[in-house]
Design goal:
SH3 type barrels, Immunoglobulin-like, 25 strands, 3 domains, mainly beta, four-stranded mixed beta sheet, disordered C terminus
Length: 335
């Protein structure tokens, strides 16, 4: 019995030795993790926002520019875009109809984002329109909205001086206007040097009845000349007011419009002209009811000629060169 007990004890020790050896080997190869239980039994929420930075980058620049046409409108517009002040090399060129908006799409990063060195040149496909140059500051990417641009025609300019025909003295304060038919477009007065300058929109270039009118505030008949801008946008006109030195004194002025200038004093004689108010008349002969004398008729570039005829005395007033301007009374022009 004792022998069997010893045998059993040795076998039990042997079994425990094998178990212990296997445990040591497993611990050596797999570590202690196989014996480690779960650290937390449930998920723990701390409700903190994740520290993540997100950047959205577009692949191009969407350029938009509204267009307005205050007057006439060209058929097409050419747009040239330049970058970083380099106008020797066009970055993109676009020809489009004259629409309400210009759009262009540019690659990312091609524009100067620090200064207004980027440039858009707009060329209306009509020689009567003004080219536009728009500098702008760029962006790296995204949508770039530029201010509205007005597409206008080249303005028309009329300038010159005003003097007295009698002695070439400078006339200050003479009214000067541009009219379309009888409607005044713009008006000014001559300065201390007799100089005047008027600028009107280019749309009037194609009008047929544009005229310059000067001296509406003077006692003489107004100076009138049709304006032709077909060959130029600028016209220079030197205006002479009143009679020339060729008309001998005494001088009279017609005191109303539609004064009959007749070929002889007889009843039923023919009327050669109807004279305007303020027409100068040089008297040579006097009858109880009429004056015989001369008027000057402008014949354009060749100057003027004198014509003789008869005018009723009641239609004339003596010219007094001491006051060349009409007197104003309650906004009504009188002599």
């Amino acid at each position: 019995m004792i022998y069997k007990f010893i045998i059993m004890k040795k076998e039990r020790l042997k079994f425990l030795f094998i178990i212990g050896l296997n445990t040591i080997l497993l611990y050596t190869f797999y570590g202690c993790a196989m014996f480690k239980g779960p650290e937390y039994s449930e998920i723990i929420y701390n409700y903190r926002q994740p520290l993540i930075s997100v950047t959205y980058e577009y692949g191009e620049i969407a350029l938009k520019m509204p267009l307005e046409y205050p007057g006439a409108k060209p058929e097409n517009l050419l747009f040239n875009i330049y970058s970083r002040g380099d106008t020797s090399r066009t970055m993109i060129s676009i020809l489009q109809d004259a629409s309400k908006e210009f759009r262009a799409y540019l690659p990312q990063g091609v524009l100067d984002t620090d200064n207004e060195t980027n440039l858009i040149k707009i060329y209306p496909q009509d020689p009567d329109f003004t080219p536009q140059y728009i500098p702008f500051k760029g962006i790296q990417f995204g949508e770039l909205n530029l201010p509205t641009v007005e597409i206008v025609m080249i303005p028309l300019t009329i300038e010159g001086t005003i003097s007295l025909n009698r002695n070439d003295s400078i006339l200050e304060g003479v009214s000067v206007a541009i009219q379309n038919f009888d409607q005044t477009i713009i008006e000014t007065e001559s300065d201390t040097a007799g100089y005047f300058k008027l600028i009107i929109p280019g749309e009037y270039k194609r009008e047929e009845y544009i005229q310059l009118v000067a001296g509406m505030n003077m006692i003489f008949k107004p100076f009138k000349q049709k304006l032709d801008f077909s060959n130029s946008y600028n016209i220079n006109i030197n205006i002479g007011m009143g009679p020339s030195a060729n008309l001998a004194e005494p001088l009279y002025l017609t005191n109303k419009s539609n004064v009959h200038f007749r070929d002889n004093p007889d009843i039923g004689s023919s009327t050669l002209f109807l004279l305007e108010n303020g027409e100068t008349f040089s008297v040579q002969r006097v009858t109880p009811g009429e004056y015989f004398g001369s008027i000057e008729v402008d014949i354009g570039k060749k100057g003027s000629i004198k014509l003789d005829g008869w005018v009723y005395r009641s239609d004339l007033d003596l010219l007094q060169l001491s006051n060349l301007f009409k007197k104003q009374s309650n906004d009504v022009s009188i002599y």
